Structure formats: C-alpha cells, structure tokens
C-alpha cells in the first residue's frame, strides 16, 4: 500500500466535464436557431455574382468564427460577403465548395464513382481465323476423338475405333500449306531475319508437294542465291532438289546440268544413280557409261571388309545381303581386283588380299570358305605361308581339333620361327596336353620375339598358375595390367591369385576395381560375397550375394547362401522364396523342398509344413527324412495319420537296410577282383568315391529334426573363369594376327 497514491479532497475531480457538451451539437434546438434556419433558406442561385477572383487562400488578418456570438461579418475566400448573417446574428461558416459541385461545371450531377460514363464497352470477339484458335480447335477435336475411341474400345465397339482411325488417316494429309506459305512470306520480308534462304527452301518444298514445280524451282534458286558458299552441303542438297524437280517436269537436260555439277563437287550414290537414269531417258549411252564409272568410284563410307556384313539380325536384311554378297558384280569385283594387283608392281599385296578375303569369311561365320582360302597358301612363300598357317591353327583349335591345330602351328613356325603368334598357338596346343613346362617355354620365346605380345604374357601367367608358381603368375598379370588398364579378365586373375596367396584384402580390392568396370557381372559379385563371408562380414556378404542374385537368379550357390542367411537371422519366411526358386531350378532334388517345409516348421506354420511334407512324400515316397518329419508333426498335432506314416517309415528303413546288406555282401564277395583291378578302374572308382563324398556332404547339410540348417561349401569358380579367359586370349590373338 505504500506505493498507492490517494487523491486529496481538495484536488479537482478526475471525471469533471464528462457530462458537459458543446451546444453546437444540440440538434434538438436547431429549429429555434435563427442563424441556422437563415443559412438553410439561403439559395445558391440568389448569391451575388463574383466581381473578382482571388487566389485560393484565405484573406489574412480576419478573425475566425469559432462559436455563436457577436462578431464582425467575414469575407469569403472568393471575395464575397458571407451569407446567413441577419440582424447581427452570426452562423457557423460554410464550406467554399459544396460536395458534388464545382465552379467550372455547374449543374452536374453528384457522381463520385464516375458511373455517369455509361456501360462498359463490349468484349472483343475471338478471331477464329487466327492460327492459335485453329490449333486450339484441332487439339480439342483430337482429344475428343481419342476419348471417344477409348470409350468405344472399352465397350468392345472396335468397328467405331477402326472407322475413326480411318477418318484420321484420311485427314492427316490435309496440311495447312497456304497458312504455312503466308507465315513464311511474312518472315522472309523482314530484313532483320538472316536465315531467309533456309525458309525459302521450306517454301519450295511446299510447292513441290503441291506439284507446283515452276514455283518450286524458283524458290529453290532464290534459296541457292541467298545461302553462302560456306554452307556447301546445304547448297548441294538444294541442287539435288532442283534436279529432282526437273525430272518431275520432264526437263532431263536441266536435271543433268544440276546432277553433273553435284558429281563434280561432292559425288554421292543417289545423285550418280539419278544421273544415269537421266542419260537413259535421253538415250545417251556413252554418257551413261561415264556416269556409271563415276558412280562406282563414289566411296561408300564403310570398310571394304564390312560391306557385305549384315548390320542387324533382321531376316529381310540378311536375305538381301546374302543375295548380293555373291552376285556376279561382287564376283567380278573380287576377280578384277586380285587380277589387277597381280599384274601390277604390288604383286605381294595379292596375297594380303587373299588373306583378308579369308578373314572376311570368318567375320561372316563361313568357316569352311575361310579354311579353303587359307589352305591355298601352303605352297606360297614363307611369310604368307606362316600367316595363313597361324590362322588355320587358330581355327582348328576353336573346333577342338588339337592335332590339326598342332600341325599347322608347326607349319607356321617352320615357315617363320620368329612369328610370335605362331609360337603362342603352339604353346596353346601344348597347354591343352597339360605339358605346362613346355607351354611356358613357347610363351617365353614369343615374348622374346615380341615383348608387346599380350596374348603370350596372359597365357604365360595362366601356365604359371597351373604349375603352382603363384608369384611368377602374379608378376605376369601385374605387367599385363600396366598395359591393359581396364581389362576385366586381368583384374579377375589378380584377385584370384591374391586369394590363393591367402591375402583376401588384396583380392577384395581387385574385385572392387573389377566391378567398377563390369558392375553387372554376377560371378564377380558372388565372389565378393564369398570373400566377405569368409572374413565374417555377413552384411557386406549379403549385399553382394543379393546383387548377384538380382542379375542372375538361377545360380544355385547364391540361392543356397541367401536362404541360409535368412534362416541364420531368424527370417525363415523370407528364406522360403529362395528355396522354392531352387526347387524350380532343380525339381528332382528333394533337399530344396525339404528346406521349404523346414522353414514353415521353424516359423511355426505347422499346418503348411505338414502339407508341404505330404506333397514331398507323394513325389518321393521313399525319402526317409520326409517320413520322419511327417511322423513327428502328426504326433505333435495329434493326427490319426501318424500310424500310417510310422508304418511306411519302418518299411522304407527296412528296405534300406536290405539294400545296404546286399551292397556289403557284394563288396566282400568281390574283394579279390577289386584288388586285382586295373589302374583305369581304380581311377574310375576314385571318381565315383569323390562324387559320393560330395553327395554325402550335401546330404549332411540337410537339417535334422533338432539341427539348424548349414550351408554347403561354395563351389570354386576359378577353373571356369580360367577357361573363359584362356579363350579370350586366343580370340585376341586372332585379331592381332590378321592385323
């Protein structure tokens, strides 16, 4: 309370004056106010006229009226006495200008919003002849037709759809040529437009479509005059169009003039052909021959050896190429070409032409013709004989005729001992005989003759790898990688060698470089997953195994690993998908179907597991594992079928025991003969033993009643990759040889 201030009694009341008001605002006494009534009765028309005009400022030095009372009458700002004064009684001063009135326009009505100007003008009507409106109308029609066709098709009214389509196809030729010409005319009249020549070409094309050939020629020539010589290709095309128009007009002489000019400046196949037709039309045989010589001298723009190779796999195109590659003109071309070379100073080139002909046969996959052509060089001079024999050795090696391949490799070496390709082929034939020491010697000799022979270096690395000399193989492939930086085969071999040297980190590093070159190789991705799995990194292994499965969903090893991964991580429902796919790939393997049933059982879906086991039993009635699970499930679910399955299980187990006893007795009875068996039979038995061991490993990987699922060991893919890369080395050798 010490901060509260109380007003003393002698101070003025804070609310004093709130009930007082100015009598000016007392509207009830206006009827008795004489001054106000006099002002109301004052008429503007009876005011005295103005005698002088003063500036619009108030007269200075006059008292201002603020309330009723006696005061001196004031002059208005316009120089006239104020109205409303009567008997000395004053009234409040009025405004100089009344609202809605002005001294310049007397008698005008009060219109502060400007509504006296009349109604708004009507909207402009759309010009339906404008190109924009026509485009909008056509677009609407097209959309309506599409919508109507879709509805008709949904109703099955295909006749209406076909009718609409026919009408549209009939109308699509109704081009707006006059509108286009008018638009082009407006553009080319603009002097600021620099490409008028190109537009005149378009105008000439329109006249050509309208069959107005004189106009077309006129505009083509106008365009030719306006296009500079710097655009040579454009001028040639215009000249060609001019020649075509003259042909349509029947003026062959003028067309010949245009075509002759083109053949002298920039010859091409189409112009040469049209020139021959024009000379044929006028009956000039001599000029036809000369024109044909000009035509065949025009370069085709493709390699001679690729001229008769089909560019695609279309049957019609292949039939055309098949028809022309051995026609009379082609045969005459080959014969005259070889004869001309043989009769010239460059007779040595004839042999190269024959070899190129054999290479062309190879590219056309005509191996028989290629072999026949190359065999003609067996009695030629040494250099040509060596090249032909090298290629023959390669061809026979591809056909796995290793004896002939070895024979022609020896023939190539006898003709030219320093031929590195012949030494490589000889080393290959020795390699397949598993004489790796001798093969390495031939590859080394090839490298001594040509240190840049990458085929010899690659195959030498493979030979060292087979011999177990991993450091030497690693040195070869590292040298090869410095030459072929982006070779995926070399990168894979380096990764494989580091894995064999028990350096998984380096192997992973090289495989990572490999997938940067070939990111969609499923084998490489699976190998990366295997290495990460061996290192204990399950998440990375899963990532690469899953990518491998995405690109190749039929790899059993990858499918098996992914299924096992989901089981280990307690996601048995997801593992079912992979084992079902494995069952589709190998429908005769019961283990995949057993794994599907096991996944259902592990996930708690016993009813589905029971149905799956029953289905397996129908397909494989003698499978003991399936019967055991059926007996156990029927017991757990308290089903009546348990006794039937138990009886079947005992019967199958009894049959198995009988078979085992028979096999055992048979082995004991033939122990003497087996000890006296040949070495060949020993090798055969060892092979069967290996297969049975592999099968037992697979069977042991199946889950028991209380055992978790275990994956089988991954298959080594190194051998497969080595074989593939060995083929690659040979094919690369062939390309190098013919070059």
Which spans have pLDDT < 50 for at least 5 consecutive residues?
Answer: 51-89, 677-739
Gyration radius from CA atoms, angstroms:
53 Å
Proportion of residues in helical segments: 55-70%
Tell me the number of strands: 0
Strand content: under 5%
Task: Tell me the overall shape.
Answer: flat
Summarize, please.
The chain is 65% helix and 0% strand.
Please outline the helices and strands.
Blueprint: H1 34-41, H2 131-155, H3 158-171, H4 177-188, H5 196-209, H6 213-226, H7 232-249, H8 252-265, H9 269-282, H10 285-296, H11 315-324, H12 328-342, H13 348-363, H14 367-375, H15 382-398, H16 402-415, H17 420-431, H18 436-449, H19 454-467, H20 470-483, H21 488-500, H22 504-517, H23 522-534, H24 538-551, H25 556-568, H26 572-585, H27 590-602, H28 606-619, H29 624-636, H30 642-669, H31 671-675, H32 679-700, H33 718-738
Helix pairs in contact: 2-3, 4-5, 5-6, 6-7, 7-8, 8-9, 9-10, 12-13, 13-14, 14-15, 15-16, 15-17, 15-33, 16-17, 17-18, 17-19, 17-33, 18-19, 19-20, 19-33, 20-21, 21-22, 21-33, 22-23, 23-24, 24-25, 25-26, 26-27, 27-28, 28-29, 29-30
What keyword list fits this structure?
disordered C terminus, 33 helices, mainly alpha, 739 residues, single chain
Q: What does this protein look like?
A:
Residues 660-677 have a biased composition (Basic and acidic residues). GO terms for molecular function: kinesin binding. It comes from Denticeps clupeoides. The chain is an all-alpha fold. It contains 33 helices and no strands. It has helices at 34-41, 131-155, 158-171, 177-188, 196-209, 213-226, 232-249, 252-265, 269-282, 285-296, 315-324, 328-342, 348-363, 367-375, 382-398, 402-415, 420-431, 436-449, 454-467, 470-483, 488-500, 504-517, 522-534, 538-551, 556-568, 572-585, 590-602, 606-619, 624-636, 642-669, 671-675, 679-700, 718-738. Helix 9 runs antiparallel to helix 10 (285-296), helix 14 packs antiparallel against helix 15 and helix 24 packs across helix 25. The radius of gyration is 53 Å and the shape is flat.
């Amino acid at each position: 309370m010490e901060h509260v201030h109380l007003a003393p009694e002698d101070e003025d009341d804070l609310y004093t004056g709130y009930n007082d008001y100015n009598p000016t605002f007392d509207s009830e006494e206006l009827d008795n106010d004489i001054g106000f009534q006099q002002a109301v009765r004052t008429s503007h028309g009876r005011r005295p006229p103005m005698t002088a005009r003063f500036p619009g400022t108030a007269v200075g030095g006059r008292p201002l009226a603020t309330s009723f009372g006696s005061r001196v009458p004031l002059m208005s700002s316009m120089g006239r006495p104020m109205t409303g004064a009567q008997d000395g009684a004053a009234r409040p001063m009025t405004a100089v200008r009344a609202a809605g009135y002005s001294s310049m326009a007397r008698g005008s009505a009060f219109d502060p919003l400007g509504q006296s100007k009349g109604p708004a003008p009507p909207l402009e009507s759309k010009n339906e002849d404008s190109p924009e409106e026509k485009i909008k109308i056509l677009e609407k029609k097209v959309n309506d037709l599409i919508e109507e066709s879709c509805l008709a098709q949904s109703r099955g009214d295909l006749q209406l759809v076909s009718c609409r389509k026919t009408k549209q196809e009939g109308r699509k030729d109704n081009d707006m040529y006059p509108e286009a010409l008018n638009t082009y005319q407006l553009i080319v009249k603009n002097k600021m437009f620099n490409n008028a020549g190109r537009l005149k070409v378009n105008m000439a094309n329109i006249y050509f479509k309208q069959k107005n050939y004189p106009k077309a020629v006129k505009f083509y020539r106008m365009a030719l005059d306006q296009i500079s010589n710097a655009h040579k290709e454009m001028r040639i095309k215009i000249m060609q169009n001019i020649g075509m128009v003259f042909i349509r007009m029947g003026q062959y002489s003028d067309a010949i003039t245009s075509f002759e000019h083109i053949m002298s400046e920039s010859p091409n196949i189409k112009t040469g052909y049209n020139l021959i037709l024009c000379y044929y039309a006028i009956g000039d045989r001599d000029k036809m021959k000369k024109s044909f010589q000009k035509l065949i001298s025009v370069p085709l723009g493709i390699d001679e050896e690729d001229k008769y190779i089909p560019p695609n796999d279309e049957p019609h195109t292949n039939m055309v190429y098949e028809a022309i590659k051995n026609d009379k003109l082609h045969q005459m071309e080959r014969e005259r070409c070889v004869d001309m070379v043989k009769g010239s100073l460059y007779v040595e080139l004839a042999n190269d032409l024959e070899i190129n002909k054999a290479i062309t046969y190879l590219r056309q996959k005509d191996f028989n013709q290629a072999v026949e052509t190359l065999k003609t060089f067996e009695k030629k001079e040494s250099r040509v004989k060596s090249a032909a024999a090298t290629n023959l050795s390669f061809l026979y090696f591809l056909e796995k005729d290793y004896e002939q391949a070895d024979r022609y490799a020896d023939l190539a070496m006898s003709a030219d001992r320093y031929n590195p390709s012949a030494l490589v082929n000889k080393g290959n034939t020795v390699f397949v005989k598993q004489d790796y020491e001798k093969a390495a010697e031939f590859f080394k000799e090839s490298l001594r003759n040509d240190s840049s022979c990458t085929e010899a270096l690659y195959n030498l690395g493979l030979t060292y790898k087979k011999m177990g000399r991993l450091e030497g193989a690693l040195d070869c492939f590292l040298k090869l990688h410095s030459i072929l930086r982006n070779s995926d085969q070399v990168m894979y071999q380096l990764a494989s060698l580091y894995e064999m040297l028990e350096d998984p980190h380096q192997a992973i590093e090289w495989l990572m470089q490999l997938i940067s070159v070939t990111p969609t190789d499923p084998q490489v991705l699976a190998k990366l997953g295997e290495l990460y799995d061996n290192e204990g990194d399950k998440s990375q292994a899963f990532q690469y195994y899953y990518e491998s499965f995405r690109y190749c969903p039929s790899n059993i090893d990858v499918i098996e690993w992914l299924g096992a991964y989901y089981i280990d991580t307690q996601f048995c429902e997801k593992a079912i998908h992979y084992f079902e796919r494995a069952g589709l790939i190998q429908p005769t393997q019961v283990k995949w179907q057993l794994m599907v049933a096991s996944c259902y059982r592990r996930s708690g879906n016993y009813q589905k597991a029971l149905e799956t086991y029953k289905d397996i039993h129908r397909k494989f009635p003698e499978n003991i594992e399936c019967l055991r699970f059926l007996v156990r499930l029927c017991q757990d679910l308290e089903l009546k079928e348990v006794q039937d399955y138990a009886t079947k299980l005992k019967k199958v187990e009894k049959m198995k025991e009988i078979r085992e006893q028979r096999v055992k007795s048979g082995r004991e009875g033939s122990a003497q003969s087996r000890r006296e068996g040949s070495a060949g039979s020993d090798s055969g038995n060892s092979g069967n033993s290996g297969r049975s061991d592999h099968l037992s490993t697979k069977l042991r990987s199946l889950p028991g009643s209380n055992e978790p699922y275990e994956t089988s060991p991954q298959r080594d893919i190194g051998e497969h990759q080595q074989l593939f890369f060995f083929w690659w080395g040979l094919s690369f050798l062939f390309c190098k040889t013919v070059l």
